[in-house]
Specification:
heterotrimer; A alpha/beta (about 475); B alpha/beta (about 210); C alpha/beta (about 260); B: about 210 residues; alpha/beta; Rossmann fold; four-stranded mixed beta sheet; 12 strands; about 25% strand; C: about 260 residues; four-stranded parallel beta sheet; 14 helices; about 50% helix; globular; disordered C terminus; Cys_rich_dom (chain C); oxidoreductase activity (chain C)
Chain lengths: ~475, ~210, ~260
C-alpha cells in the first residue's frame, strides 16, 4: 500500500528501462495483441453502425460537458430524491476526508472496494490507512497489485505487466498476510489463480458492511449509477454491504437513461473486447430491503474543471476509461503503464495526467511527447477523442513555457532555413559538398538516432538543384 | 463558499465559450440501429450464451416444470433459493426444497451461501449480446439471491427476448436495481485470457421457453 | 493536366530520386509538372513538436506558393495530411489563412490519391521485377485514408510480386522528433517493423513517405539485413527501359 508513482523518472528515461525488460515486453505484447484482436472482432460485428454509435457517444459526452453545471445539479437532485446523499469534493484531500468521515461513521475499520480509477487517482486507500481503515481491493488485478505492493499499469487490467507465474508467486507469498492464504500446491493456471482469489475474498465479501466504488456512468435524469464488471466482485460490493460510498468524477455524467443505449454497446466492446461484460449493476439511490440501505455519492472535481476550461483539451473528459487506446498504442505496448508515472497511462493518460496535474513537473511535461502521433488511439476511441490533436496542443503549452532552450534554438534554426527557398538551397549545397563526411555514429541528440539507425547518404544534388539544371538544359 | 458552490462556479467559468442560448435539452440521435441482423432472435441468444459457456436449453412452454426438475437434478441440487414471487408451477415436478426470499423476509447471506443454487425468471434478455437482465421483479427477487449461490438457473420466456441493447434499455425502468448478466462470472485479468468463474455464480443455466403451448 | 509538385523538404534535401521519379511518372502519363520555386516545408515538424507559430508561417508560405495550382501532388502522405488535416487548425476561425486553406486543401493530394482518384489510373505502365512488401504509413493510413490505393497501384506493376507485411498497420516508430525525444521506444518499434519486413522475404519495402522509410531503412541497414527501402513513386516510375536507372540506383535510404 505504500507503492507510489512519485520518483518515477520522466517518460523517456522510464521507458528506456521498460523497453529493455524482456519479460515485461513479452507480457505486454501478448496481452495487448490478444485484446486488440478481440476488440476488432466484436466491433466488426456491428459493421457501419459502430461509427454511428461512436459519433453519438462523442456527441452525448460533448453535449454533457458543455452543460455540466446543469447536469450536476440535476444528478444531485435525482440521487437525493431516490434516497442517496450527495457530497462535493473540490480536490483529492477533500474527497478523502469525506470518505474517511463516512466510513468512520459506520464504525467499521474494514471496507471492500470495487476497482475505481477515481479512488486510485486520489490515493484513497492510503488516506484510509492513515485513519486506521483497511481498504481491500476485490478486482482480481487490483488484488494482485495490492498484494504485490505494486503500481497499476493499465486502466482496465492494472496487473497487465505481470505474467501468470509472477501472479502465482505473489499469491503464495502475500495472501496469508491479508487474509485467507493461497492453497498449497497452487499452480499458475489462470483458473487456479482465479479460484484462489475467490476463496481469499469470499468470507470478506460476506461479512464486510461498508463498500467503496466508483461508477462508469451517472445518469442525471434518473439518478442511476452504473458499474460494469466481470468477476462479480462488483456485485458483491454493491449489493451485500449496508453502506455504499461511490466516488465519481464529475465528467462521468450522461444526461438520460436512454444514453445507455449507446454506451452499453460502446464500452464493453471497446474495453474487454466482449459483446457484453459478464455483469453490469445499476442502482438508483436506495431500494428498501434490497442492497445497501445507505448510499453516498461523492462528486469529485480534482482538476477536472481545469481540463474543462481548455476548449481543445476538454475532449479528454469524454473518456469512458475503456482502455482501447492503451491496448492499441505501439508506445504503450513497448513501455507498459508505469513509465507514464500516473494511474492514467497510455495515450489517454498522456493527455489527461498533464491536464489534471497542470504540467508542473518534468514528468508531466514529458507526457505529451510520449507518442509518435500515429493516430491508432483516435481510431479506436469509442468517443472519438482526437488524442493526437490534444497531444500537439499540450506540446504547444510546453514549447511556450520557459526553458527548453536547446530545442527552441534548434527549431528557430530550422525555421530560418525552411522559411526561404534560398536559405534551404544554400544548406542543401553545403550538405552536398560535405557528403561522405557524416560519421555512422553521431554525438548528442543526433546520437539518439544513430545508436540504432544508420543515417541516409546525403545526395550530391538536391531535387531543387536538379530541377534548375533540367530547366536550364531544356532552355 | 461550499465545495458544491465552488465546483459549480468553476464549471461555469470553464464553459465561458458556450453560448448562453445553446439548448440544454438534447434528444438521443436516431442514426444508430436497434440491432445488427445477427439472425433469428432465439438462435442468436442461444449462440451467444454458449459462447460465454453458459448452459442453455430451448424448451416448450409445457415442459418448463420437467426441465427445471431435470436441470436441478443434473446439478444435484437439493435446496435452492427462490424469490417469493416465483411461479410455483415451475417446481411441480421437482422435489427440491425451496428457500423463499423476499425484501420483507430476506434469507441471511450465510443462508444463501449454504444453498445449492437459485432459480429465477428475468425482466428482459438481449439476443445480440447474450444478456439477461434482472430488475428485482417478483420472480427475480433481491439482488443478493442471484449472487451468492454458485449456480443460477434462469427461466427466460421467448417474449422477453429482444434483439439489441437499445431495445432493452427502452424496456427497463432505471428506478429499479438492475443486474445485467452475460454468462457466468469471468475474468480476463491474467494475461487478458478469459477464465469463467470468479465471485459470482460459476454456473449459469438458461431455460429458454419458446412461445405457444 | 498541369500538376504542381510539392516535393517536401525531406525529399528535396535527402531523397531527390523520389522527386525525379514523380516527375518522370507524371510526364510519362502525359501531364505537365511544375515546381513552384517558393516552396520549402509544410511545417509539420514544427507543428507536431508544439511550435505552432512557425508552422503557421510555413502554412502561409505554402498557401501563397500553391494557391493558383489546379492540383498539388505530394510524394509524402504525412506532408499532404499536414496540409489537409492540420492547416485548418492553424488559422483562427474566419481568418484569411483558414479561408485560403479551405479553398486549397481539397486540391492537395498524396501521389497515390492523385493517380487513382484524379487521373483514374491504377496501371501506370510500370515494370519492377522484384518481390515487394508495402508498409502503410500512419498518416497515409489514418489521416488521409489511402486505403487500397497503393495496393491497387502495386498490383498493376508488371513483374512485381507483392507480399503482405505482418503487423502492417502498426507505426514504424519514426514520428518526427519522437524518434530522438523517445529514441528507445522509437528504436524498439523500428526493430519490430524491420523484423516483420525481413520475415516477408521481400527484397524491397516500399511506402509513401520517405521519413518513415529513412527510419526503417536506417534500422535495416544497421542490421545488415540486405533489404532495401524504396518510395512507391520510384517503383511506379520504373519501366523496362529505364527501370534500373530510375528506380534502383541510389534510391536506398541509409545504405
Amino acid at each position: 500500500m505504500s507503492a507510489t508513482f512519485l520518483g518515477i523518472p520522466p517518460f523517456p528515461e522510464a521507458a528506456e528501462k521498460a523497453v529493455n525488460d524482456s519479460r515485461l515486453r513479452h507480457n505486454l505484447r501478448k496481452a495487448t495483441h490478444t485484446i486488440r484482436d478481440k476488440r476488432a472482432s466484436v466491433v466488426g460485428e456491428l459493421h457501419d453502425d459502430w461509427q454511428r454509435l461512436r459519433a453519438e457517444g462523442a456527441a452525448v459526452k460533448e453535449h454533457t460537458l458543455r452543460h455540466l453545471d446543469r447536469y450536476l445539479e440535476q444528478l444531485e437532485e435525482s440521487v437525493q430524491r431516490a434516497g442517496g446523499q450527495v457530497h462535493w469534493a473540490a480536490d483529492a484531500a477533500e474527497a478523502n476526508e469525506i470518505v474517511t468521515r463516512l466510513v468512520k461513521a459506520t464504525g467499521e475499520t474494514d471496507v471492500v472496494k470495487v476497482k475505481s480509477m477515481a479512488t486510485q487517482e486520489i490515493e484513497l486507500n492510503e488516506a484510509l490507512a492513515e485513519a486506521g481503515i483497511t481498504a481491500y481491493e476485490t478486482d482480481l488485478a487490483e488484488l494482485i497489485v495490492q498484494l504485490g505492493d505494486d503500481l497499476p499499469s493499465h486502466i482496465l487490467v492494472p496487473a497487465i505487466h505481470l505474467g501468470r507465474a509472477q501472479i502465482r508467486e505473489i499469491f503464495l507469498e502475500q495472501m496469508a498476510e491479508w487474509g485467507v492464504p493461497a492453497p498449497e500446491g497452487l499452480t499458475d493456471d489462470p483458473r487456479a489463480l482465479a479460484e484462489a482469489a475467490r476463496v481469499h475474498l469470499r468470507e470478506r465479501f460476506l461479512r464486510t458492511r461498508t463498500a467503496i466504488s466508483g461508477a462508469n456512468f451517472a445518469v442525471a435524469d434518473s439518478g442511476t449509477l452504473v458499474v460494469l464488471e466481470s468477476e462479480g466482485n462488483g456485485r458483491m460490493c454493491l449489493t451485500l454491504p449496508q453502506t455504499l460510498i461511490s466516488v465519481v468524477g464529475i465528467e462521468k455524467i450522461v444526461p438520460t437513461w436512454s444514453d445507455l443505449e449507446v454506451f452499453m454497446q460502446l464500452l464493453p466492446r471497446s474495453s474487454t473486447g466482449e459483446r457484453m461484460n459478464p455483469y453490469t449493476s445499476t442502482w438508483t439511490g436506495v431500494t428498501p430491503g434490497d442492497g445497501p440501505q445507505e448510499f453516498h455519492l461523492v462528486l469529485l472535481d480534482n482538476g477536472r474543471t481545469d481540463v474543462l476550461a481548455d476548449t481543445v483539451g476538454r475532449q479528454a473528459l469524454r473518456c469512458i476509461r475503456c482502455s482501447a487506446c492503451l491496448n492499441t498504442c505501439p508506445v504503450y505496448e513497448r513501455t507498459g503503464g508505469h513509465a507514464y508515472g500516473s494511474v492514467y497511462p497510455g495515450p489517454i493518460g498522456a493527455i489527461l495526467t498533464p491536464q489534471l496535474r497542470g504540467m508542473s513537473s518534468e514528468v508531466d511535461e514529458a507526457l505529451p511527447y510520449a507518442s509518435s502521433l500515429c493516430g491508432a488511439c483516435y481510431e479506436v476511441c469509442p468517443v472519438a477523442i482526437d488524442i493526437p490533436e490534444v497531444l500537439v496542443h499540450l506540446r504547444e503549452e510546453v514549447a511556450e513555457s520557459p526553458g527548453h532552450l536547446g530545442e527552441k534554438a534548434m527549431m528557430a534554426g530550422a525555421e530560418a532555413v525552411l522559411s526561404s527557398p534560398r536559405a534551404l538551397d544554400a544548406v542543401q549545397r553545403a550538405a552536398g559538398l560535405g557528403r561522405g563526411a557524416v560519421p555512422r555514429h553521431l554525438p548528442g541528440t543526433a546520437g539518439a538516432w544513430t545508436d540504432t539507425r544508420d543515417v541516409p547518404d546525403v545526395p550530391a544534388e538536391s531535387f531543387r538543384q536538379w530541377w534548375d539544371k533540367r530547366g536550364r538544359e531544356r532552355g | 463558499m461550499s465545495s458544491r458552490e465552488q465546483i459549480l462556479a468553476r464549471v461555469r467559468r470553464a464553459l465561458a465559450d458556450v453560448p448562453a442560448d445553446e439548448p440544454v435539452e438534447r434528444a438521443l440521435g436516431e442514426g444508430f440501429a436497434d440491432s445488427h441482423g445477427a439472425g433469428p432472435t432465439l438462435e442468436v441468444l442461444e449462440d451467444r450464451l454458449h459462447d460465454y459457456r453458459a448452459l442453455v436449453r430451448r424448451v416448450g412452454a409445457d415442459r418448463v416444470a420437467a426441465e427445471v426438475a431435470a436441470a436441478l437434478e443434473r446439478r444435484g441440487a437439493a435446496r435452492v433459493a427462490v424469490p417469493a414471487g416465483i411461479p410455483r408451477e415451475w417446481f411441480a415436478e421437482s422435489s427440491v426444497e425451496l428457500l423463499c426470499d423476499s425484501r420483507e423476509e430476506p434469507v441471511p447471506v450465510s443462508g444463501l451461501d449454504g444453498v445449492d443454487g437459485v432459480v429465477t425468471g428475468c425482466a428482459v434478455a438481449v439476443a445480440e449480446t447474450g444478456t439477461i437482465v434482472l430488475d428485482g421483479g417478483p420472480d427475480q427477487g433481491r439482488r443478493a439471491i442471484t449472487l451468492v449461490p454458485d449456480y443460477h438457473l434462469c427461466v427466460v420466456r421467448a417474449d422477453q427476448v429482444v434483439d439489441g441493447v437499445p431495445q432493452a434499455v427502452r424496456l427497463l425502468d432505471p428506478s429499479r436495481p438492475l443486474t445485467w448478466i452475460s454468462g457466468p462470472s469471468a475474468t480476463s485479468d491474467i494475461e487478458l485470457d478469459r477464465v469463467e468463474g470468479v465471485h459470482g455464480p460459476r454456473t449459469l443455466e438458461v431455460l429458454l421457453v419458446e412461445s405457444g403451448g | 493536366m498541369r500538376v504542381a509538385l510539392f516535393i517536401t523538404c525531406v525529399n528535396d534535401t535527402l531523397f531527390p530520386d523520389t522527386g525525379r521519379a514523380v516527375v518522370r511518372l507524371l510526364e510519362r502519363l502525359g501531364h505537365e509538372v511544375v515546381f513552384p520555386e517558393g516552396q520549402t516545408c509544410c511545417g509539420q515538424m514544427h507543428y507536431n513538436t508544439g511550435y505552432r507559430r512557425p508552422a503557421g508561417r510555413m502554412a502561409v508560405r505554402f498557401v501563397r506558393t500553391f494557391e493558383g495550382a489546379d492540383a498539388v501532388v505530394v510524394p509524402s502522405a504525412s506532408c499532404a495530411a499536414m496540409v489537409r488535416d492540420n492547416y485548418p487548425r492553424l488559422g483562427g476561425r474566419g481568418s484569411r489563412l483558414s479561408r485560403k486553406v479551405a479553398e486549397l486543401a481539397p486540391r492537395v493530394y498524396d501521389l497515390t490519391e492523385f493517380l487513382v482518384d484524379v487521373l483514374g489510373v491504377t496501371d501506370v505502365g510500370a515494370y519492377y521485377p522484384h518481390k515487394v512488401t508495402y508498409h502503410p504509413t500512419c498518416h497515409g493510413l489514418r489521416m488521409l485514408g489511402l486505403g487500397d490505393r497503393p495496393y491497387r497501384l502495386l498490383r498493376a506493376v508488371r513483374g512485381l510480386e507483392l507480399v503482405d507485411l505482418p503487423g502492417d498497420t502498426e507505426c514504424c516508430g519514426f514520428g518526427g522528433t519522437f524518434a530522438v525525444k523517445n529514441g528507445d521506444v522509437s528504436s524498439a518499434m523500428g526493430a519490430d517493423k524491420a523484423r516483420h519486413a525481413v520475415e516477408t522475404g521481400a527484397e524491397v519495402l516500399c511506402a509513401v513517405d520517405n521519413s518513415c522509410l529513412m527510419h526503417i531503412g536506417g534500422t535495416l541497414s544497421r542490421q545488415r539485413s540486405g533489404m532495401r527501402v524504396v518510395h512507391l513513386a520510384e517503383i511506379l516510375a520504373s519501366t523496362e527501359r529505364e527501370g534500373a536507372h530510375g528506380a534502383l540506383e541510389g534510391s536506398e535510404a541509409g545504405s
